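Data deposition worksheet. Section B asks for the primary sequence of the deposited chain exactly as it was used as input, without tags or linkers unless they were present during the calculation. Section C holds the resulting structure in token form. Section D is free text for depositor observations; keep each observation to a single sentence. Incomplete worksheets are returned to the depositor.
Section A, Depositor: J.P.
Section B:
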Amino acid sequence: MSLTQELVRIPTINPPGDAYEACCRVLGERLQRKGFAVEYVRAVGAPGDSDAHPRINVVARREGQAQGPCVHFNGHIDVVEVGSGWTVDPFAAIVKDGKVFGRGSCDMKGGIAASVVACEALIEAGLPLPGALEISGTVDEESGGFSGVGYLCRQGYFSKPRVDHVIIPEPLGVDRVCLGHRGVWWAEVETHGRIAHGSMPFLGDSAVSHMVAFLHLLETQLQPRLAHRHTAIPVEPPGARQSTLNFNGIHGGHPEQRYALNALGEPVGDLPTPVVAHSCRAVLDRRFIAEESLETVKQEVVDMLDELVRTRPGFAYTVRDIMSFVPSATPKDAPVVMATARAIARVLGREAQYIASPGTYDQKHIQRTGQLRDCIAYGPGILDLAHQPDEYVGIDELVQSAGVMALAVLDLQGVLPLMSH
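Section C:
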């Protein structure tokens, strides 16, 4: 609990990427005291990295007593913005009603703390671990993970022979093994118009009006089709077992300003420009299921844009890919899946549930770039609380998940079967 509190009190908000080094140092110095060799790895030149906000990751490794498999616990240290609606200080890490409250407590500093405590317990027990233990705290998962796990994967940190098994303690429930996630395509669609004086809009061509037509087509044609596409994969929550499309943002015309009136009713601050919008941009967040292909997902949006080119005078567009990842799934008979499921049964006294996540997480980099398939998400917390006001993680969940993770290590390294004899 105390480590969770210590981590929550460091406001690692992304964007812009605050206090990453401070958080990594807390983890690194603690693990160093337990005999881990610690590296601080800056993702120089990666997205978001700058001297003002360096993308610093921490990787700690403790060698085993023999040449056995390495089990790696990876957690992201960045958290999303606070937002409104909180009834407690989001960075005070207040404890009440058996819960630690704060931004990042659930997603996922509680999970990082549980994995650290699990490894510390194994070390303090003096068990003859034949393989290495690794723990990493990485950045920017909330914005794609390109400067965190993505960067480390490109440097070989998540590949064999260095690492054999990876557990990512995302907040998916103490009795759930998360096998993978849906796919994602983020794209920016821009509609083009012709600038003109706002008092004579008939001399111009509004890109905003063109965007309205496109969004209307998506809402009336594409989204109803997506609602009928369901996956056989056990995605949680159940509402995410279908394909979805969200409009993450939209902007058109003059750069955004906040206009206000003074006591005399006069406008103050920057004033709007009286022109017809010649550009309008919308960010699409398309989540797709395993039964769909990325190529098909992209093409059906392009087909709708092309339909408007044919049927709507003056319609023109461009599409820019922002990010895409295909669905990911680790087989149920993979070693890390089976070991974690056995540990859940032993600690909790009930069978594990197998699920998939509605959103992507850093498993995508480990499997695609690191070429390591033996990777799951397992950790304390309720996913629905992530990014919400009054986010929290249960203390009992922290303790239970740490026990599960410790037993999973013993199983994967061949120690648990020996202990049972």
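Section D:
The mean pLDDT is 95.
The chain has two domains: 2-181+327-420, 183-324.
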